[in-house]
Amino acid sequence: MKTIKLFISLFSIVLFLSCTKQKSTSNYSPVSTEDNYTYPTDSTTINKWVSTNNFKAMYKHSWSIWSHLTTPVEGGKLRYQTWSSPAQILAKLNNSNGNEQQELLFKKPSQFGHAKAKQTNFDDTDIVEVVAYNKPAEAYAIKNKIFYLSSLKKFQNGPYSSIPEFPSKTITIKPVYKIITQNKLNADGIYTMSAWNGPEYQSEGFPEKDWGSCIHVDTSESNDTNPNGNLDYDCNTQTTENTYFLNDFIHFSISEAQATSYNEEITSGLKSQLKNKEITKVKYDNLLKVSLSKKGDKALLVGMHVGTKEIKRWVWQTFWWSPTPLTPSIPSSNDIASSKHGIPLVGAANHYAMGVAYSMLIPAQPYKGGKSEGELVIAFNPYLEAGFGEDTFTGSTSYVYNRGTKIKTDLGVITNCMSCHMAATVNTANNTSANYYGDSYLGYDNPIFKDKLMLDFAWSVQGNIDTSK
What we know:
Blueprint: H1 4-12, H2 43-51, H3 55-69, H4 86-94, H5 110-114, H6 120-123, E1 127-129, E2 132-133, H7 135-144, H8 149-155, E3 160-162, E4 171-180, E5 190-194, E6 214-218, E7 243-245, E8 251-253, H9 256-275, H10 281-291, E9 298-308, E10 315-321, H11 334-338, E11 352-357, E12 361-362, E13 375-376, E14 399-402, E15 405-408, H12 417-422, E16 425-426, E17 452-454, H13 459-462
Parallel strand pairs: 3-17, 6-7
Antiparallel strand pairs: 1-4, 2-4, 4-9, 5-6, 8-9, 9-10, 10-11, 12-13, 14-15, 16-17
């Protein structure tokens, strides 16, 4: 059983946490709209940052990536909204004359289905995702037919095998949204949602329904914003400090097709809970009534995983909406927040906190033959991984030795994007994969990869295999 003392000790050594708390008087207005983004950064440069613990350079680089993704482009969309999902890429592969699926459609986050934790831990959040690949990643996927099972079988040609590595210009993203349906609004048009306030020091998962902290969103037409406000700690007391506006979020109105895909995903999850007797028929009916969406409902971006193939094990950064972006909660920090000064962020993009993982541990371990020893590097997304409990992970290998003390890392709030994505695999004979891992060292020679095909850190490949091709 983990103790409060252990967690306090654990988080005191987590990489990227601020040593001092400094108040900032700046708002989140953009410094500039100029895109001065350079990508990819040379791997030698990034690896030097990692070896010398140059955190400031890492933070700046990851904020620049966020700026690039969230910059408006022609047509009124943000850049990341113009990229293709695996479903769209498959449609292009299967229909050489064009892309039959023209829209990005919603899916339940793959973590919630892959994890061994009970589905009911997550379905209360009504979160959906739209995984997407940038143009170089899409071209790679089409050229290598990476979503075809037949292609993957050809790549699995020995006890330790891998797909071809993605090109260095690759960016893959997993944006996650909450949909504001009409039945979720109160009489004044206010939408109340859980908002992250840092991890609970407990020995179980920490899903949204247990956070005990909320904010209120005014959905009326307004140009008002709340740059750095407060939380409602009983989720039932609205004030001006804990009320935010649509303009504080990256958001958009959903289409009819997106509403249909959302309803299908939510209904499927609720039916699964009903079948497994995790909810009653009465609760099922009530949740279904509240959750069903229609064209024109608003999608709020609450989080996004971002992987960039700039180094062999990728650069990992994760973003989530924060009520206090100037003083964000763990796994972000004041140091990370202040590092975005000078980065051209437009409007609501400033209202997001960030966690980063440029290595699994400090010091960074070699590709093979390393040890799970050092300081923890914690990077998780509250809206995706916080709910994971001990039974989600491979506990025998989810650990780190720090100064002779063994620290178990088998909770969602002690995870690392790089460690978890290193385990992205598939056994093409039976379409099984490795389990999730908490923050720990994984080398390319780890026995878990034997007789499995390594997917170059891309769980999105494993989750979108066309077994008919």
